[in-house]
Specification:
The structure holds 2 protein chains of 2 kinds. Chain A is α/β, with parallel strands linked by helices. Chain A has helices spanning 17-30, 47-51, 61-65, 71-74, 100-112, 129-135, 149-164, 179-184, 190-197, 209-217, 221-224, 228-240, 255-265, and strands spanning 5-9, 35-39, 76-77, 84-87, 118-122, 140-145, 169-177, 201-206. Chain A is globular and about 55 Å long. Chain B has a two-stranded antiparallel ribbon with strand order 1-2. In chain B, strand 1 (54-60) and strand 2 (63-69) form a beta hairpin. The chains are: A alpha/beta, B alpha+beta.
């Protein structure tokens, strides 16, 4: 992806924006990029707990935008991987304080003066002001979608809004795919979602219990080790960096070998 | 299950229709209302005109178009 400022968005809530942001940030950092992940969901802060950094929050995004803290003071360095930083959302302050133009300037500052290679912006759900602000500095977007009707419909709406903002480099993250249901014809396939939404996929993430376990523990899956979703997030990070990584064959049922792999190879 | 067909085909069909309306910012029921009006007008010009009129949204090369199919006999 050419875009260095990327908004992670979906329209619908609960489809995996925050998980995607955390794991993609960790994946890109693991591959050598200096990454800032920014939580823009003011009042419903979550990226900090998903990443396990909630105990280290001192300043937040609105403190920085209003000049009470410098960006460098508010960024929390993740000690488990080089070059991964979190800028948390404010949990208590008024979200009206989140000024889109100041936010744009902050993201530019991180990219041009603080040496960041990539800024990932975790958008709030919905299509209102929170989303609009999150999208303001973005040069590209990852649209997270689950293969089900309400998520696909909301993703379509978000894609229209991104295009209206002249954000052009938009790619799909198809999350929580259940290959067995797809094989039975009871879940939209990757091809179906791509056909309906008209965007290319950059990540295809299978449903994986490991995601919830890692969220419970506060450690992004990508940092913990392997498993199907961790592998898929890491592959996605490689594609974003421009590597040609073929999509794993998730359509077939796992079969005997797959079951063995799941039993013995999991992280 | 074999007796109910693939549920994802139903999902896809429903999504395509609802997205056609969403993308064109059309209120639900609009096309049906238009169809009723068209039928009335057609009766004026073709009194013998019977059934078979279909009006539907279609996507053509990235544009939404309204297609009316009017069999005359």
């Amino acid at each position: 992806m050419k875009a260095r400022a990327i908004v992670v968005t979906s329209g619908k809530g609960g489809v995996g924006k925050t998980t995607t942001t955390a794991n993609l940030g960790a994946g890109l950092a693991k591959l050598g990029e200096k990454v800032a992940v920014i939580d823009v969901d003011v009042g419903l802060r979550n990226l900090d707990v998903v990443m396990g950094l909630e105990g280290r929050v001192v300043f937040d995004l609105i403190d920085v935008l209003e000049g009470r803290a410098r960006a460098r003071q508010a960024l929390i360095r993740d000690k488990r991987v080089e070059n991964l930083y979190l800028l948390p959302a404010s949990q208590t302050k008024d979200k009206e304080a989140l000024d889109p133009e100041r936010f744009r300037a902050l993201v530019q500052h991180l990219l041009t003066e603080e040496g960041f290679d990539r800024v990932l912006i975790d958008s709030p759900a919905g299509i209102e002001k929170g989303f609009q602000t999150a999208a303001t500095p973005a040069e590209g977007a990852l649209v997270v979608v689950n293969p089900e009707v309400s998520s696909v419909r909301d993703a379509d709406r978000i894609i229209g809004l991104l295009e209206a903002r002249e954000i052009r480099e938009n790619l799909l993250v198809i999350n929580r795919l259940r290959p067995r249901m797809v094989a039975k014809g009871d879940m939209l396939s990757v091809e179906d979602v791509v056909e309906i939404l008209g965007l290319k996929p950059i990540g295809i993430i299978p449903e994986d219990e490991g995601v919830l376990i890692s969220t419970n523990q506060g450690e992004p899956l990508v940092l913990k080790g392997m498993g199907p979703a961790a592998q898929a997030f890491l592959d996605m990070a490689r594609r974003i960096r421009g590597e040609e990584v073929p999509f794993k064959n998730l359509e077939a049922s796992p079969g005997f070998l797959g079951v063995l792999r799941r039993l013995f190879g999991g992280g | 299950m074999w007796w109910r067909g693939k549920s994802k085909d139903k999902a896809k069909e429903r999504l395509k229709l609802v997205l056609a309306y969403d993308r064109a910012s059309l209120p639900p029921g609009l096309v049906e209302a238009l169809k009723q009006d068209l039928l009335e007008v057609l009766k004026r010009y073709f009194p013998a005109h019977e059934e078979g009129l279909s009006v539907a949204l279609e996507e053509r090369g990235g544009r939404m178009v309204l297609v009316a199919d009017i069999p005359l006999r």
